[in-house]
Design a protein that fits this description.
Layout (H helix, E strand, L loop, with lengths): L2 H26 L3 H8 L11 E8 L14 E11 L2 E5 H4 L2 E8 L6 E9 L4 E6 L23 E6 L5 E14 L8 E8 L9 E4 L2 E10 L4 E5 L1 H11 L12 E4 L4 H6 L11 E6 L14 E5 L2 E2 L5 E4 L3 E4 L1 H5 L6 E8 L2 E8 L21 E4 L2 E5 L2 H5 L5 H4 L2 H10 L11 E6 L14 E6 L2 E2 L3 H11 L3 E4 L7 E2 L2 H14 L6 E2 L12
Antiparallel strand pairs: 1-2, 1-4, 2-3, 3-6, 4-5, 5-6, 7-8, 7-10, 8-9, 9-12, 10-11, 11-12, 13-14, 14-15, 15-16, 15-19, 17-18, 19-20, 21-22, 21-28, 22-23, 23-24, 24-25, 24-26, 26-27
Amino acid sequence: MNHKSCLNIIVLFFLSAVVGTVTTRAEEVEPIEQQLIAVLPDELPDMTRSMVHVRVSQIEADRFMPWRSSVPQRREGFAIVVRPGLFLVPEVLVRNHAAIELRRAGFIRRVPAQVVHADERIGLAMLQATESDWFLDAVPLPVLTEIPQNGDFTILQWGANDHLQVGQGSLLSIGFESIGDGIPHQLTYELAASMRIDNTGTPILHDGKLAGLAMQFRGGRRTVITIAPENITRFLEASEHETYTGIPEPDFYMKRLADPVRRRFLGVPATYEEQGIYVAATLPNPDVEHGLEVGDVILEWDGHMLDARGNYEHAQYGRIPFQHLVAQRMPGDQVPVKIIRDKTVKHMQVLMRTNDEVHRRIPRNEAGKPDDYVVSAGFIFRELTLDFLKAFGDSWERRADIDLTWHAYTHQDDPDDPVQRTVILVGVLADPINIGYRELRHQIVTHVNGHKILSLADLAAKLDQDGLKSVTLSGMEAVPLRFEPAEVEQANQRIQARFQIPTLSRLTNIPAQNAPME
């Protein structure tokens, strides 16, 4: 037998062994659902009756030319049945939607859906099918009361042809961060997943109950930031009211109080060593009787002692930020608080309420609403918002105009002057009237027609009264840009036609206190 014959025999023997092995394994493999039911009988409910596909047609607003919209895009994810006829999804999935469709696993037909409640601060939304008789046999998935710290988590998602993909998750950490741009110090936990998670809103289960939704991803989508079941429960409770109540947030800004000299100056007794936080600023509160004041030292919140970092001892999670206590209440609740005011220990009731965009000089616009704007003489005016800066894309902190970014960080709340907003010049639409000004962009507007500008509504009122005569930009106060109102009116007609602007102004998001006076 020659060398070549021996080699052929060896190759044939190897191939037969491999084929035999593969055939044997193929015969032994059971469908994935049967395997998992055998291994995890209590952790695999019939998800065909508790989870649906969501398809969203979404249209983003153009932050630089606010009268325009982007090309429609499609988003897909999952929704969980949490109440009869109601479906829970991440708010970001349905943000700026033009149409929402739901589909059951194993079915082709899609049905339209509408948003019942959406809270961009907590990151959740509730959907309802427009056809009341659709999916009547749906089974709501129960929600856990707290983050389980023992045992594995089950991750479920529909794959191609509605094949149920099942993975395992291991708890890495419990932490506090915002979901997107939502409430800071929101209770979350981090999982290491055994498979790639494809969609936001993928359900995380434990003992057959909903333990959270996949909200953010790291490490190739195999590490997932999950919203805690406590927050889901709070959202469901708030949704049961006829008018959605929202989740309360602190209406003050705190500072750590570790400096012993400062503690003595504020009158903190030695018996409260390493206890208490300092109220550095407050948002406007119409209920003065039940509000905190700058200079207060908070010793206890809702029956829990606070340390100098603002943490309290949680029975399950250890030392965590007191903001979690706030989120467990409902707006309108009065919470017992022990404080030091004027070097005297006092007990008071603090009214819980939600914090909306009215109280921020630089709104976040987490919901991505279309922006208000005014166009005059080709100048595009709008208010500075956080989502405008984020429109510069990834690494927006470096790519956006540094002066605007710095202004947003240093003035984003400005609780002492809730009426004022920051108006900016976005850019200039080319026209003979603005020759020499066309390179101006991303600058703060301080005055129009010699009047200080407090908001976009204020600017619009000045233009309606006198037309555009002059514009003063930050850093250029000595040289205001001047116009002839009669020429501006003619230019506005040309610009509106040339750039196909439906209307030269839109003022739909005006807070009551920012509305122009009659």
